[in-house]
Amino acid sequence: MRYCKHCLQPDTRPNTVFSLDGICPACIYYEALQHVDWQERFEILQDLLSSHSRKKGQYHDCIIGVSGGKDSTRQALFLRDKLGINPLLVSLSYPPEQVTVRGMENLSNLINLGFDVVVSAPAPLTWRKLKQEGFQKFTNSFRSTEMALFASVPQIAIKYGINLIFWGENPGLQLGDMKTLGRTGYDGNSLRYMNTLSSGLDWMLECGFKKSDLVSYVFPEINEFEENNLQVVYLGWFLGDWSLVNNAAYSCCNGLEIRSDGVEKTGDLYGVTALDEDFTPINQLIKYYKFGFGRVTDYVNEEIRLGRLSRDQCIKIVEIYDDANDEQYIKDYCHYLQISIEEFWEKVKSATNKKLFAIKNDGTISRKFKVGIGL
Known about the structure:
Layout: H1 25-33, H2 38-51, E1 62-66, H3 70-82, E2 87-92, H4 101-112, E3 116-120, H5 124-138, H6 142-160, E4 164-167, H7 171-174, H8 202-206, H9 222-227, E5 231-234, H10 244-252, H11 263-266, H12 280-291, H13 295-305, H14 311-321, H15 327-337, H16 341-351, E6 357-359, E7 365-367
Parallel strand pairs: 1-2, 1-4, 2-3, 4-5
Antiparallel strand pairs: 6-7
């Protein structure tokens, strides 16, 4: 395990490749942004919109996948208020046991701001069973969740005959998932190759689910994209001030409700992510034990690149909060998966990367690596 020389990105992030100088893709991309002609990118965006104009009789120009959170709220307002186009918002609904009141209020806020919203709601019983199987098989109950999340947007686009889809950040350039890179910086049609989506439905079928149970989890094939002239566009590529903090600040000014539970429970420095449910902090904790980095690492990396915090300051923050967790959230998560807390930790420890962590006799887990240095 080694860290980027500029930020605290580890090379254990799936699908990331450092430069020969030891710099992560996200830092290389950020440096390149300092030389971008943003007016030129804005004109490219206008040309894209012109080439994907709505069909006769249609009301919406494009589709945006939304949760009601910071990124989706900013995208919707930017496209409508800055560019004068009318987006259809598509939201994947969590089951009642998982969704938060905060999440429902934020989605309602988008509706109150004047947007049309289509809600996709997979069958709750299948949803729970898939999360149970995902946790037992991969120690990742979100594998199926994310497949439904990503699949819902192009599925609705095809059904409504809308061929332009806007997504937020480019995970290849802004996070380092290189398999998702497309033909251009804004081309999102390679999103299907990201770590979770690339696993497909095979593991679900092996667990006994029928294809008819899994309609909500099927990301359209390449030929379906081509037949329907679908284009996914990363809107973040066109916005010079696109960032976690900026998007949150902009959205809070437009009615977004954020978290109040604190970084020590969620690893969320500002309380602005995963607003619609409380299981994601548990998934981030598990990710930490698998790959050696959690949500706080993602936060501070942006702060380092923007020059708001030093690398040394961020090392201290990561050391304290990268494995943040809350007993009540873990209890709720286990109750939903119908497992005991003891079973949860047994499974997590069996999936813990033993090269990066040591499990002591008393059951506690400690780092073998030093934050900012690695192994």
